Amino acid sequence: MNECVFKTADLRRCVEHALKATEWQVGYLPEVDKPGLLFVHDRGVYLMSSGSPRDKLSGSEASYAVYADQCDPEKDADWWEASRARVGGDDFAEFIPIEETWLNLCKQHKKCIIKMESTSFAIEFE
Fold first, then answer.
1. Residue 66 and residue 82: Cα distance in Å, rounded?
2. CA–CA separation, 101 vs 84, rounded Å?
3. Structural domain count, the chain
4. The pTM is what?
């Protein structure tokens, strides 16, 4: 089983943005009717809010994203290899519905861990 570990202190911004939004977008998919996060593999592995309008970084067109440990192209020299080792070689975006309880989970825990099998994944907080 492969794992992607995210810092909840950083993830909290994504959760808050998604919960405050009144509309949500799931990339190439049509609008959805509930808050969520996007679990993405393209240039690294990361989570971001599905809230619309996007949560853009200050002074940039890029969206705020929380990268999995060792999978951030701006910080990790071996991000490409680490990303492939954790989630494989194909790019993807998966919608993860969230609720208000996620805010408490982010406050109470230091890590959000996505554990992946070949056809599914599970989320745990530590």
1. 15
2. 31
3. 1
4. 0.93
Query: Hey, CA dihedral for 54, 112, 36, 41, is it positive or negative?
Result: positive
Q: Which two three-digit tokens encode residue 64?
A: 């705020």
Residues 5-61 pLDDT 10s: 999 999 999 999 999 999 888 766 666 789 999 999 999 999 999 998 889 998 888
CATH classification of the domain holding 10 = 3.10.150
Residues 6+ apart with CB under 8 A from 65: 14, 40, 46, 47, 48
Distances 17 to 8, 30, 36, 64, 73 between C-alpha atoms, Å: 14, 19, 9, 10, 23
Cα three-residue angle 91-40-106, rounded to 5 degrees: 160
Alpha helices (H) in the chain, listed in sequence order: 8-20, 79-87, 101-108
C-alpha 99/C-alpha 116 separation (Å) is 21
Q: For strand 51-52 and strand 36-42, is the pairing parallel, antiparallel, or unpaired?
A: unpaired
The Cα–Cα gap between 75 and 20 comes to 29
Residue ranges making up the domain that contains 68: 2-125
